[in-house]
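S.,

As promised, the zinc ion run. Input:
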Amino acid sequence: MPSFDDIPLIDDHAHPLLPAEAAAREPFARYFTEAHDAETVARHAPHALFYRQALAELAEFLGCEPTEPAVVAARAALPPDAYFRRLLEDAGVAAVLLDDGYPRTGALTVAEMAAAGGVRAARILRIERLVEDLIPTAGSLAALTDALVRQLEAARPALAGLKSVIAYRTGLLLDAEDRTAAEQALVELRTAWAGTPGRVAAKPLLDLLVPLAATWAAERGLPVQFHTGFGDRDLDLRLANPLHLRPLLEGGALSRGPVVLLHAAYPYVREAAYLAAVYPNVYVDISQATPLLAGPGLARVLEDLLALAPVSKLLYGSDAWAVPEWFWLAARAARRALAAALAWLPEGEARWAARRILRDNAVELYGV
Ligand SMILES: [Zn+2]
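Predicted complex:
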């Protein structure tokens, strides 16, 4: 089996860490499951094969017993920044693109992540987060769209791309623009929020603003990432199927610039591979599938993607958040699964494909 351990990684989708003392307030397993309820976190998440394997790998790295308490104690004994740097270096991570719209508060900034990790870091701006920040002071829809474009322009020099979580809020099946309904939704939110940004899930508003931001990005050559496929229980998974994006891809707001379908759209993996194969501007990232899909599950996802999508359309990402181990576990899982999925190819061809997916495609697409 080939090994791709020497190829430097670019992680095209992750989130900032929480300060170690804040992260330590939750059970460690909480950071490695999409479930939020206490029962699943306490009784079932620790029995996920991915998590058990993760503890075994971390125990070896930390030189401790392969149990959760031993791993938690060993990591807590290390200086957080030095530990983060060691993990990134060991995993061969060269650069990270960070959606700093989540966690909403209390996380490190993009600059702090670069300094702590000793890596290059660039910002991915979450459209819905910016919209939420602007709604309380927007007196009208026109004022809101003006402010949105002004803020995007101001942020642009430090941006590697935009991201939308509309799949989480109102789904990927967008309605045609309806300014009257959007104006009404804005009035209702402004009143309900009373000056403090809340969670925007008003369909007429998002169905207007997300295409507007995507068009802004396309005109500047910036990719737009879309959450697709699995996530936590906030999500109606039926509406996270990327096939819903067809009207936008066919001559709509997503036909003009690069679009990245995040999380391999799992379980809609083959649908994502198809879209990447037929639309010149559609890419697929494998974050969150790395590291959450255990063992051969991740290799199967890569096999399905590689069966149809050109190698130039696939990107490595982790969806790491809150705790530094996620970056390390995802990188190792991706290298292993790629080696398995590409094992049928001659070695030179397999290495070429792995290098494109782990690094070169991101350099081309995001200019990082
Ligand atoms: Zn994410």
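The mean pLDDT is 97. The pocket of zinc ion is lined by residues 13, 15, 99, 319 (CB under 6 Å).

- D.
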